[in-house]
């Protein structure tokens, strides 16, 4: 989008300005021909200390200069002038839109930060209230020492049973167990002897636990007393049995301490 501004004096002096509007600014290039250019036109063409990028106020000044220096016997064409005004309005609208979007982004960022701070404060207060209480926290992994057996309590949820898969660090299933909901609280105390599905002993390490059932509410867990609470980088955790767990891992809370 561009605008051309022409100014002609009585001495047949002409000056043309081509002002394309690009990315919210006006690029101006000018040239003079015969005679002496009026001082006001020359000053306008050198606006912004030689820079070719002009703002909306500079663009408006060009239009004013055009009217002040037009030839009374050959005034600016109405259609051309209306087009230039429309371009100025478009430039002003674009600048206003950019400012509104920038303000909105700043407001949204500030609101999101405040909301996150409030959520962290609530989570921190809730976690502090758990200190000294017995909680049941969901397990996503289990450490294996390389010998002996490890107990894996599993809540089968509202189903009669759940499938428990033990995976290595690459996500390969090395052992599949079945938990039965035979107790009053639908918890089965599984025991893993450290062997894979072929009976081979696995190496020491940390293994992932994945449970599944028909109602999608089974989980492996451990329980213990919350000894402390931490808040690192906005993440609130509770310490149970020497390990840290996120608040979303807390499945049950009881008043007393575990034995």
- At the first level of CATH, the class of the largest domain is Mainly Beta
Characterize the overall form: elongated
The name of the CATH architecture of the largest domain is Sandwich
How many domain modules?
Answer: 2
Write the CATH fold name of the largest domain. Immunoglobulin-like
pLDDT averaged residue by residue: 76
Number of strands: 17
Helix percentage range: 25-40%
User: Secondary-structure element sequence?
Assistant: EEEEEHEHHEEEEEEEEEEE
Terminus-to-terminus distance? 79 Å
Quaternary structure classification: single chain
Structural class: alpha+beta
Fraction in beta strands: 35-45%
Major β-sheet, in short?
Answer: 7 strands, antiparallel
Question: What low-confidence regions span 5 or more consecutive residues with pLDDT below 50?
Answer: 1-50
> What count of helical segments does DSSP give?
3
Radius of gyration: 38 Å
